[in-house]
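Changelog-adjacent note: as of this version, every example in the card shows the full chain rather than a window. The one below runs 485 residues end to end.
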Amino acid sequence: MLEILFIASEAVPFAKTGGLADVAGILPQFLAEKSNVSLMIPEYLTEKIRSLTLETVDFFPIPIGSRSFPAEIKKANLTPRLSVYFITQEYFFARKYLYGDAHGEYSDTFYRFLFFQKAIVEFIRRQEIFFDIVHCHDWQTALIPLLIKSPPSPSLLLKTKIVFSIHNLGYQGIFPGNLFSETGFEDYLFSSDYLEFYGNINFMKAGIIFSDWLLTVSPTYAREILSPEKGFGLDGLLNKFSFKLSGILNGVDYSQWAPENDSFIDYPYSRVTLAEKRKNKEALYAELNISTDCNWPLLVVISRIAKQKGIDLLLNIFPILLKENLHVIILGEGEAHLTQKLQAMADQFPNRSTFLNFFDERMAHRMEAAADIFFMPSIYEPCGLNQIYSMKYGTVPIVRATGGLEDSVSEFDPHTGHGTGFKFSGDSISEIMLLIKKVLAMYQNPQVWRQIQENGMLRNFAWEMVVPEYISIYNKIMREDRNHG
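Full-length structure tokens:
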């Protein structure tokens, strides 16, 4: 039985800001069916963490530069084979938000996550815990592979294999170079071959260089990050280590996202009772005081309002799109200059568009159940989940052919009847509008539209399908060690 340690800066149900939390929280639950799994995250001020009964299992100082910070390690056993450890340091983690507030990222982010990682490795050393696999996620854990392989590394850890998952290469943990002395690492590591990056420290580089295997959250994204366009300055390094890089598409928790048993929607439905879906559109329109004809298609966008998500493109096509007989609802919050433009656009076309400038889980579910079309124009999208939820809800996705969107949505072919949605590439407004008009024309053919909906609803992206791919990677790198031994 494998001994596996997951390390992340967030994990459901304890703390979440994005998709990283889903992977870090749900994947261990499935792995624990056949392995012993531990999860380590910071102890944040969330209700879910406060509701747990935690046992303190260790307490020790962590030196950072000339200072020292006490680390307390608390533990909860969730199941016989799944434990969660919380790294406790009130000064760093007992805050209202995980990473920052309205003024931006916390100014001591470097120290917060340097402490987090050092405390974990020191705890493993002190307790002499053996893990076959240590699986780290994103830049907040990227120093762990280096820390584990740095002296004094007990022989117990020498056989440990380290997997490092990149959820979004756009966030690398880059900090001023003058902070390097605070890390305690040897001077040679502050060079372009290692952690130095244009005069700064780059945490992500350590994860890429010192891990035994690199994962991303979709096969296409694994290829894309090798290119200068989507490599964020690390494409050269990633090409050097591409022999240990692969992508696994994220799974979906269908216990939360399935129209048959969704507690947020008024009219549950399935592939067999798909006609009920329209009632959810009527209910949503009533809730939002939308008077648009329900026979017109409803196109929705559920997204963080950020440049990466293709919001500029959305703003550019809006005036043309809203000449069509349809209604558009956008749900999301984010960058102020973009939300202001979206609000102005919605005000200009009040009968055909609605902008909900917030994020709310309930509303996201109700929109998926009500919508006919889901639009996702992300510039890059490592995995993406809403396009997968959409297919399950019989909502037809139109997506940019990038990352996980390329891997999860298959182009509908009216001749064969195969395919689950529609894809575009590039930024040509006229080409994208041509595609949308083609989709709107198909909507007018109930038989064809039903075929696309059913195709999507039959796709299965459950975590149960994904877990064997992770176990295969774990076994592969452990086997290689035995072969070389």
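Structural remarks: The chain has two domains: 3-251+464-484, 274-460.
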